[in-house]
Design brief:
It comes from Mycolicibacterium fallax (Mycobacterium fallax). 48% of the residues are buried. Strand 15 and strand 16 form a beta hairpin. The radius of gyration is 25 Å and the shape is globular. The strands form six sheets. The chain has a five-stranded parallel beta sheet, covered by helices on one side. A five-stranded parallel beta sheet has the order 8-17-9-10-13, covered by helices on one side. Strands 6-5-4-18 form a four-stranded mixed beta sheet, with no helix packed on it. The protein has 21 helices and 21 strands. It starts with 15 loop residues before the first helix and ends with a strand.
């Protein structure tokens, strides 16, 4: 396995101050107000950067427990105030000294800081991985140094299919490397799923500090969990900052991509909004279509007969007026969970048809705005935003791995998969019961399968308060049929509806959708994948030269992970492969079939030890027709980061 970069190289980022803390000369009152809103553990780490004094970690109160979605380390209010009082003095002194470059810890000092912040949760083996994300090293800035020549890269055109978050970071990497490229997207603008999903209530369920490019500041968010419009604006702002507009070809759909062995190139056929057809020649294709581009509408008898407006949440009609209407929402997963509370106030009546209840975690900040002071702290206090980011992701990502592990000797009737998972289940049930004592409603909303088996939703009580409304009805009887005027359930009850909304998710196991990709010998990728897509590290596919997937098979980390972080890993790896190919003098590369098969097999073996394959998890869109979960990643994110840090030529065939 390639070794990651050593800790504490000097960062090469030109805008390091913008990312890690801009100098400030604000008044005492402004700084005091900011510190009052800041995360105390992250504030404590920033104090060390401002002073270079590790002794503060012995003198002041420190976090006592790292809890998911708690940014204050379970500290008491008196202890937090002690830290804030000290932080004000440190920050004022730092300002008065002219905000000199922040102190950077050596490895031993970093270990001390990590041990305090995470209460010992981050083991030594994670140090390089965490240091890179903290931006204490330049390991993730640009990836490994390029070994090909600028002339080679300039003569290697690339087509990127998809202009979502993955296509954007791929474009940024390619532009920095001097590789010509075009980004093709069927929508009228950038943003991918965040441009397509415009339904009311749509927002991210990963904290913004982590659902952000690691090389871009995080001080501008107005909510802890941003709404769709703000995320879309952020993605467009990033694209503009890095000059991607000139590389876009929008309202253009890729129909086929065909590999030509003689020229070692791809012919990418497209069709524009006016029906104009174009063939783009490329030496490589980056397929950044993602796993949420193909909405699913279930095959329910009579669905086509419904007389009123009927649409999927991913195809929201901007002109729709729901005021006073009787609305049938089919599906109570992530999109339905967000949609229903957002429309309940103006609708006449909302009926929610739920096939399977979802687990949702206690999160008092889910709908809360971020105060101006907290944003000031992220913008100005050295490294504060980076430590805040670590607090937001570690407990739910690699730090939460034990909760998802199946214990083969554990048996509580399938309600959980092990002792840690059971403890988590008990916490979630207690959270649900805090908002309702209605036994009938509890029977409908408390899942009878282990938590984390499906993507864990976030809630501050809004969902249950909405379901308790007189004008909202949760229906768990299966749907038998739909007719022109409404929905009939299996118990024979017909409920009239004016509007039918499908909140029924996406076909993640067939992410190519209508695109035909033909590799060596004309082999069709969709046919090769069938119901079980595969790719080495989720990026490269045997028999398909110079093809790189983003958010490909076996890369979806379900709980607590940010797909943007994964996309950064994949873009770095894809660029590394291109550079390795060019430097070798070869024209094409493909992963060795045995290497890809071993990766796929190992990943599925890992997943069989985790909650996602638990026998009680039967209605999951991650599962294919054989019960496998080919889209999920079963390993640690730190391992994925290390394996994608640079490609190993031994894994590839060159030709």
């Amino acid at each position: 396995m390639p070794q990651p970069h050593p800790v504490l190289e000097v960062s090469s980022a030109a805008d390091i101050a913008r990312l890690l803390g801009l100098p400030f000369d604000d008044s005492d009152a402004v700084i005091e107000a900011a510190i009052a809103q800041a995360s105390v553990p992250a504030l404590l780490m920033s104090m060390v950067h401002m002073t270079g004094d590790l002794g503060l970690l012995d003198e002041l109160p420190t976090p006592v427990l790292l809890i998911p979605m708690d940014l204050d380390g379970a500290m008491s209010e008196p202890d937090k105030q002690v830290v804030r009082d000290a932080a004000l003095k440190v920050a004022l002194d730092y300002r008065d000294r002219g905000c000199p470059p922040p102190w950077l810890p050596d490895r031993a000092a970093l270990r001390r800081m990590l041990d305090v912040l995470t209460v010992g949760a981050v083991a030594e083996e994670y140090t390089d991985y965490v240091a890179a994300d903290l931006r204490l090293t330049d390991a993730d800035q640009d990836g490994p140094a390029l070994t090909s020549t600028a002339a080679q890269r300039a003569d290697f055109p690339v087509v990127v299919i998809g202009g979502g978050e993955a296509g954007i970071v791929a474009g940024i990497r390619l532009k920095r490397a001097g590789i010509p490229f075009v980004i093709v997207d069927r929508q009228s603008g950038l943003g991918g799923t965040w441009a397509a999903n415009r339904y009311p209530g749509c927002r991210v369920d990963i904290t913004n500090q982590y659902y952000t490019y690691s090389f871009e500041p995080t001080d501008h968010w107005t909510h802890h969990y941003a709404e769709q419009s703000e995320i879309l604006a952020y993605l467009n702002d990033v694209a503009d900052r890095y000059g991607l507009r000139e590389h876009l070809r929008l309202e253009t759909e890729v129909t086929t991509a065909t590999w030509d062995e003689d020229s070692a190139s791809w012919a990418v056929e497209t069709i524009g909004a006016q029906g104009n057809r174009t063939v783009l020649a490329a030496r490589a294709v980056i397929c950044a279509v993602g796993q949420f581009g193909n909405p699913i509408i279930p095959d329910i008898p009579g669905a086509a007969d419904f007389a009123g407006p009927s649409f999927h949440t991913a195809d929201w009609p901007d002109e729709i007026d729901l005021t006073g209407k009787r609305i049938a929402v089919i599906g109570a997963g992530a999109s339905g969970f967000q949609l229903v509370p957002a429309i309940a106030e103006r609708a006449g009546h909302v009926e929610v048809y739920q096939r399977t209840p979802q687990w949702f975690a206690p999160n008092i900040n889910y709908h809360q705005p971020i105060g101006d002071g907290a944003r000031w702290a992220t913008r100005h206090l050295p490294f504060y935003g980076r430590w805040l980011r670590l607090l937001s992701w570690w407990p739910l990502a690699d730090g939460g791995a034990e909760t998802a592990r199946q214990d083969p000797d554990w048996d509580d009737g399938g309600l959980s998969c092990g002792p840690a998972n059971r403890a988590f289940r008990d916490l979630l049930v207690a959270w649900i019961q805090a908002f309702t004592s209605d036994e009938e409603l509890l029977a409908k909303v408390v899942p009878q399968y282990p938590p984390m088996g499906k993507r864990l939703l976030q809630d501050d009580g809004t969902w249950l308060r909405t379901l308790a409304r007189d004008d909202v009805t949760l229906i768990t009887d299966p749907i038998a049929e739909i007719d022109a005027t409404g929905v009939r359930t299996a118990d024979g009850v017909h409920r009239a509806a004016d509007v039918l909304i499908w909140a029924t998710g996406f076909d993640v196991n067939h992410q190519l959708g209508p695109i035909t990709v033909r590799g060596r010998g004309g082999r069709d990728l969709a046919e090769a994948w069938g119901d079980s897509p595969y790719a080495y590290l989720g990026v490269t596919v045997p028999e398909f030269p110079n093809l790189f997937c983003m958010y490909g098979p076996g890369t979806n980390a379900v709980n607590g992970a940010s797909i943007i972080y994964n996309s950064e890993c994949q873009a770095r790896y894809a660029l590394g492969c291109i550079d390795m190919l060019l430097a070798s003098g070869a024209r094409a590369l493909t992963p060795r079939a045995d290497v890809c098969a071993d990766y796929t097999r190992t990943n599925q073996e890992l997943l069989r030890t985790q909650v996602y394959t638990h026998p009680k998890i039967v209605n999951s869109y991650f599962r294919n027709s054989t019960g496998e979960v080919p889209t999920l990643y079963g390993g640690r994110l730190s391992d994925y980061w290390a394996r994608t840090s640079r490609p190993d030529p031994a894994d590839y065939d060159f030709g």
